């Protein structure tokens, strides 16, 4: 009964919260107001510049940035206002992130031409100095470069196991170089830009970016390696915080090349960069730099492919010696450690480097290493390979080296005199014979008494060797005679034993 009475009463309608109502009205009015405001701005811009075209969000994803106005990247910078050039610059960078397979250029001919033209426009815009590298622009630039440049190289099918181009091999050119070249030019101009905020750019050109850049030095296209060389050198010069990391990363590449693979196409370019870096080292040299010399540069003489980068390697070694002349004797010890035994072309390179090192060697450092050094030079003087012998004789034409030899002739001349005499008596090449005679004449004029003493010692040594050889010959004759006697006795005893065994068998029967 009570429930029926309550059910007949009118139901109470709940009052709406005024704060909720005002909040919803405010949100609606704000959202519509923003839309209306953006629409008015867009209408005003469209009325002033009819050439500006809106594009869909498919071309420019949300990663481009909400503050960047989407403008058709195919437009020229001349067709937009100065206020819109920066947005167009970022949009063009985003458009160039698309990567195509250049192995079949006919498939995407129109897209490739459009992309290349866009890249050229970007290079012209940056070179004109009109670009402003804000954080969105730096981010878009690094993203575009990473999309186009960072890639995995196909397996190497070269017949040579040494890596890199040799004298018998033609360089391999990348079919995508027409696009890559423009990207490299744009990246170089970006790094060289005067108003670039280094602290801001360092957030995007970070260690990961540099490592991927260093990986590209293994490219088989020499044009790409040259572009990388210029870019890495500028990064090293401009980003001071990355210098230690770059040196360490390059050292790791060299370690892996020397001690593991012996295959890398960019060792020469990396050494060219380090040649200029070494020249800027402060004195006294840090232990890190000395370690790089001992553990990286000196072992680089070991691989068979040293001829590809030997010129750059020699320059780096000489730069170290120019910084600290006391490094001469350790450097020559390293050369002697990796001196080639049966590779004559490599030996010629070592002799050439040795001459450059000796030109910068002081008398004190030379005396520390002259004994093992001229033992090796004595072996090169009477080398059966005439080019090695000729190149070694030419060391005496260097005034500084001749001065070092003259002041230390009491030690050096006995070490090489036997090689000179051996050349005079036995060498097959007439040019080497003439050079040997000239050196012997020069030494006689330098110190005739020392030459006569060396000649006398050599004759006595030859007599001792002859006597020793005669003694060994007689010992061998006695041994052979004893062996012959034993063989004759065996020939006599064997028939007697066989006859005795036959008699014993017959008696038993």
UniProtKB/TrEMBL annotation:
InterPro entries: ARM-like (IPR011989), ARM-type_fold (IPR016024), PP2A_B56 (IPR002554). Residues 19-29 have a biased composition (Polar residues). Belongs to the phosphatase 2A regulatory subunit. The B regulatory subunit might modulate substrate selectivity and catalytic activity, and also might direct the localization of the catalytic enzyme to a particular subcellular compartment. GO terms for cellular component: protein phosphatase type 2A complex. It comes from Acacia crassicarpa. GO terms for molecular function: protein phosphatase regulator activity. One of its GO terms (biological process) is signal transduction. Residues 1-29 are annotated as: Disordered. This is Serine/threonine protein phosphatase 2A regulatory subunit.
